[in-house]
Every structure is written in structure tokens, then in C-alpha cells.
């Protein structure tokens, strides 16, 4: 009897101590970079606590996604110069299937087409690429449907390689194309205006449900956004949060109709302020980052119509509290803002904008990946593949720094994934699974 009681207590402790879940979207299960995972490692290395290592056919900025025993990875195949969708067994790292989606891998030397991350609902998985190719597969690797946004809506008018990750909610796939109004370097419509738009597709068929044109007063490159639409229920209302074109807006997921808009962080219409960080929200405040070392802004949820220029709740006043590339994290009631250039991390109160602390991440390389929050820790990777671990909470404390990059890795942007009690780390040529 005593042995049975001890066994039951041990099983209960295991269940309480480890809360395993999925990571179905670039920004995780809550669309804010956070996870309720427990029992994750704080100290690890390339050789310590590594469960498996899977080779990747080429570099990509895309973040892996995880659903139960499947890991999905978007990549280029460097040898074939093609775009591929890959599925791995989460327990072993064995490749289960690989499908070529399109030929061609890049248009410039800054990045490639495999920067958008896939997304899944647990039944199907959707891969999108910077050249407009979009494909849906079931978990066995069978193609369900595919289409080209370039062919259907015109090529994207971006100075650099376009990237936005698809978002999946309520049976619909949402993609935004916030682009220049005029062609640039032969990209976009040669004559006439290029509209920026939000697109909703039926996830089961790929057919258009609605397409909403989103105008903006920005100029030239400031019209370009590499952000991702973020779904959130705020004040009882479902919204799609969209940032770009010198403004942030909330839209009805059922129709694309705009509920509200605030702007601008660029009152003088500087023409080169492209936007990279996506919006993130607490229960009451939407956070949006202006680029190029400018402040971050908190917008009260529940707004309607066009807000005045001073219609924000608060804006940051400390120079370090800014992000040009990394999307902030919302975790355990706080915003965590990673300054891509200064390599600092700040903990901020969503209600007031008060900065609890700012700490140096002690990174030798630039950081453009977005932070992940789980198990009381914050994980982030720099350009060279160094994984930095810090504590989340009342005081800043660095916990660990581990090098996962290989020779030649110098432009890594994938986020660390926390799922199923494990960490997944994507470098230029490998995918690591790490766990206690």
C-alpha cells in the first residue's frame, strides 16, 4: 500500500512539474512569445542535454513549429536552390517527409524566401514563402492545396525580400501584404498603384474569403512592413492587430473591416522607416514599436475609429526601451522588450509603461530574433547562434549563454521554441532538440 502511495505521489509530482504543450505559430500558442511549459533546461550546450540534432538543407530565418509528435520546418534546399517544407519526428529528429514547394531561393544577399514560419491547427500545416508561394499539407505530407499570391494578386513591391508569417484562427488563414504603392527595383506593378492589403483564406480550400485594402499615409519604404497579423480578443471583441505604414490598426477577422487605427510615430513622414516588429498585446494594452531607435507605444484596447496622434496611453522615454527588429514578448503580466541594436532587455508594465528593469544581454553579435518566455525564463538567440537565457521576474539576472552556431553562421534570426517539455533551436545548418 505504501509503495502504491509513493508511486501515485511521484506521478502527481511529474504531472504538476511538467506542463507540455504545442507551439503552433511563430509567436507560440498565445501569439505573444509565451508558453506555459515547465521543466525546461536553464543550462545546456551543444553536447549537454541535447536529445537529437537534425541536419537542415539550408539556412532560414523561419521558426520551427511543434504539434504533439511533429516538428515542422520551412527551409531552402541549398543544393537545389528550392523551397521545401519539412516534417520531423519530435521524439527522434528523424525526417518523416520533405516536399518541394517551389524553385528559387532568394532575390538578394540579405535573406532568403524561407523567412516566414509555418502554422498549424493540429490537422493541417501551412507553409508560406517570401516569393508568394503558399501550400497546405496534411500531417502525412499529402498536399491539400497550393496557390501563388504573386500570380493571383501581383508581385510584392518591397526593396528587400518580403516576409510575413501566416496566422491561423477560426478556420481561416490570414496573411498581410503591406507594401510600397509604387514598384521598386522591378518589383510590384510596373504601372498603377500597389495596394496594401489583408487577406483571409479558407484554411480547408485556400479560397479567398475576403481581401481588405489597408491604406496608409506613409511614404516609400515606410509603407513596407515585415510584421505578422496577430489575433487577440480585447474587451470581448476579436481583432486582428496589424502594424505597418507608420500606424497600427485593429480589424474584424470576419470581414477585414477596420475597427480602429492609431498613428503616427512618424509625423514628418521619413521615407525609410520600414517596420519589422509585430504588435503584441496584454489584456488591456496593445504594444507597437516604432523603428530606428524610436519609442514603443502602448494603446488602450477597445478603441474605435481613428485616434488622434496623442491618443496612445503611454510611450517609452528611456532610450534602451526600443526595438527595431525583435517583436516584444508578453509573459506573466509584463512586456519584455529586446533592443536589437543595444542588445538589452527591458521589463515593462503594460498598464503604465513603467520600466521595472533594463539589463545587458552581453552578446557579442547583433540580436534580431524575438524572445521566448517559458518556465520563468527568457530565451533568445543572436546572429551567431549563441543562446542567452535570462530570468523573467522582478530582477534582471543572466542565467546562461551557450554557443550553438557553426562556422559561417552570422545572420540567424529564428526564435527558440518551447514545446512538449523541450527547447528547439534552429541554426544555419541544424535543428537541435534540448531537454532536461
What's the short version?
This protein is mainly β and 436 residues long. It is built from two helices and 33 strands. It has two domains: 28-60 and 326-436, Lipocalin; 66-262, YVTN repeat-like/Quinoprotein amine dehydrogenase (Methylamine Dehydrogenase, Chain H).
Quaternary form: single chain
Low-pLDDT segments, ≥5 res: 1-18
> Strand sequence of the main sheet, in spatial order?
14-15-16-17-21
**Sheet of most strands:** 5 strands, mixed
CATH architecture descriptor text of the largest domain: 7 Propeller
List the domain count as a whole number.
2
Radius of gyration: 21 Å
Shape: globular
**What top-tier CATH class of the largest domain fits best?**
Mainly Beta
CATH topology of the largest domain: Methylamine Dehydrogenase, Chain H
Helix amount: under 10%
CA(first)-CA(last) distance: 31 Å
**Strand portion:** 35-45%
What structural class do the secondary elements suggest? mainly beta
Please, what is the CATH homologous superfamily of the largest domain? YVTN repeat-like/Quinoprotein amine dehydrogenase
Number of helices: 2
Average pLDDT number: 94
The number of distinct β-strands equals: 33
